[in-house]
Amino acid sequence: MTQAIGKAPPGAKEVEDFFGVYLLYCLNPKYKARTYIGFTVDPNRRISQHNRGAGAGGAMRTSNKGPWEMVLITHGFPNQIAALRFEWSWQHPKRSRRLNQLPPKKSREKSFDYCLRVLASMLNTEPWSRLPLTVRWLNPDFQQDFHLDPPLHMPMVQGPVKSVKPKKPSKKALAAAEADPVISDEEDDLVCNLCFRSVTSATRMDCLNPRCRTVSHAICLSDSFLAAAGELDQMIPIQGSCMTCSSVQQWGDLVRRRRGCFKNIQDISVTDEED
Asked: pLDDT tier at 49 (50, 70, 90 boundaries)?
């Protein structure tokens, strides 16, 4: 059965709040091996647009030059602005003050190899090196080793991906939560294990260990992780250990679990000089 236009293939990994920056590879013999870097919130719809042309929403640079293959995508950005800044720097490494010292493209270096070289350097350069990113090879036939491995907290995975909207609680669940005073009373009793002050749902961050019930303020936990790592000059930690159960936890996983509580600080961290 033919896959519907813009639809994810069966078994695709579902990701909420998807912000990704992708690499296209041209399969047209006339333009073979050309590349294109872009941003998307829906990779399956986007590759369909590129292959259908500018009239369908694709970019002018890719129009009438297909077919194109989306071979790799980096996702996990906290918001659209962070992903767009990453896209711009990947497209214009010579104009980015964080990348302008990288060796330029060699005369015999393939465009695809150069794009991967720049990407590898970006993943190891602040502020991107501190983000909870995932490097996903959408087509394993194109996969190759990076000249510089990404940080340990950035997984490199294979397989298709599907952008999905966050599930909203049902009206019944919302009504039950509002009508149940036990939930409110329990929340009022929560205390941060670091500053011992009350914690609200807006500032709460829970340990990822299902057997540990430790609760902290997002700011308190961030400061604790940074202090333990000797990174007091940073704003966003990479990982840290729970003060109660000692389990090592990635900051990105904590943020994903409690989505929204730390986006403002991540916005401040991801800055560059592009227009």
From this structure: very high
Tens of pLDDT, residue by residue over 147-187, are 899 998 899 999 999 999 877 766 666 666 555 544 444 45
pLDDT score at 192: 92
Average pLDDT taken over every residue of the chain: 85
How far apart are the C-alpha atoms of 180 and 171, rounded to whole Å?
A: 14
What is d(CA 124, CA 128) in angstroms, rounded to the nearest whole number? 7
In this prediction, residue 166 carries a pLDDT of 76
Rounded to an integer, what distance in angstroms lies between the CA atom of residue 127 and that of residue 129? 6
Percent of the chain with pLDDT over 70: 84
CA distance 69 to 88: 20
Closest Cα to residue 257, out of 201, 205, 200, 199?
205
Where is 83: in which H helix or E strand? helix 80-91
Distance, in Å, from the CA atom of 82 to the CA atom of 76, rounded to the nearest integer, reads 10
CA angle 66–35–97, rounded 5-degree value: 150
Q: Which domains does the chain have, with CATH numbers?
A: 13-164 (no CATH), 171-266 (3.30.40.10)
Burial of 225 (0-12, 13-18, 19+ CB in 10 A): buried
Using CA atoms, how far apart are residues 166 and 259, in angstroms rounded to an integer? Answer: 10
CA distances from 256 to 16, 117, 181, 252 (A): 9, 28, 27, 6
